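User: Hi! Is it possible to get a structure for several chains at once, not just one? Here's what I have:
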Amino acid sequence: MNRPSHHPGDTLLIDYAGGALCEGASLAVATHMAFCPACRHAVAEMEAVGGALLEDLDPEPLSDGCLEALMARLDHERPAPCRPAVKPSVQQSRYPEPLCSYLRGRLDREGRLGEGGWRFLQPGMRSMDLLSGPDGTTKLIRMKGGVGVPVHTHGGIELTVVLEGGFSDEFGAFLPGDIAVGDPSLIHRPVSDPEGCLCLATTIGGLRMTGPLGRLFNRFVKRF
Amino acid sequence: MFPLNGTMQDQHIPAADMAPSLEDLLVAVGRERNRQAFGVLFGHFAPRLKTYLRRLGCDSGAAEELVQEVMLLVWRRAETYDPIHASAGTWVFTIARNKRIDVLRREQRPEIDPDDPALVPEPDEAADRRIEAKESSGRLRAALKDLPPEQAELLRMAYFEDKPHSVISAEHGIPLGTVKSRLRLAMERLRRSLKDVG
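Assistant: Yes, the chains can be modeled jointly so their relative placement is included. Here is the combined structure:
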């Protein structure tokens, strides 16, 4: 399998490794990482930086008795199992972890996404909400071949990971595993590849459409 | 070195000049539920974890409670610790990070599953690039101390303020491009220190 050519970049990976990204953005970055050994390696390095920063913090003494209280709790711990419990094998999924966990109950026996649960966005384009919180929304977006998203820019940051098929915009071709990072300085008009496209899209902050069609589109995606 | 197979009665912490590393202690906790080793790890990490959680906004009491939760996870999961993959500090950091996201933000932390068959595998040559965790952590800390102050400060904010770099940029009035380039430059230097041999 080809490895991705569009990556989140150091600064987003640092946000992820340090734990500053919200759940939806972390899901997008981690889903890219499942496709991308290079970014997994980078995050391991950044976690090592986190470890070194932790080591260098000035220690602040704990109240007396903390260790004793904890040791007493250890008495009630059951002995650790010899092997970590075998994880229930997710019915053969086409999607890697951590995304797969968020799709639980939405996949059919073949591990494919069914036809139910999708919301109409525009002709040839549907979405399915996975997460929504105060910081933004995470959804799957499915496009038929050759569909264009109205020209839009981003009030916040939009992370889009291709899962199947692909799309192209002014910045190149995006294939499975590739992540597109949209920020307020970016205006683009993605068009799906002939075979269509399935993406995971997370928006933090707002997404603003810039054209007349875009304003119509806004009504459908106001939860962005 | 630290006695790994002794009974509780035999176990003792060797003299300072041959003190076991934090990694050895963690392995001892994982292999034999060694409480003495755990006590030493607690003495080292708990006060640093408290500072970490205080920087993230916990008051003293809440920080201490959370430190205990983190150290309890260290006890429970020590068996899964592999010193090849991470230094003790790195491993404890990741546990503390995930626990504070869970408790303080009530969110999950999405992570890859290293055993997932759907994971795109590493190319073979990647094994050579693997960080020799224990050896490299000292070099990394030295490199951190050598960072230009403005880079080091941003790096600390990125790890200790629970804010993505875009928010740090807005709140501190530092242009986004400057934040990004400082973090990138810092990471480049730190990476070089990880790659240095010996």
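Confidence is low (pLDDT under 50) at residues 1-11 of chain B. The radius of gyration of chain B is 19 Å.

User: Great, thank you!
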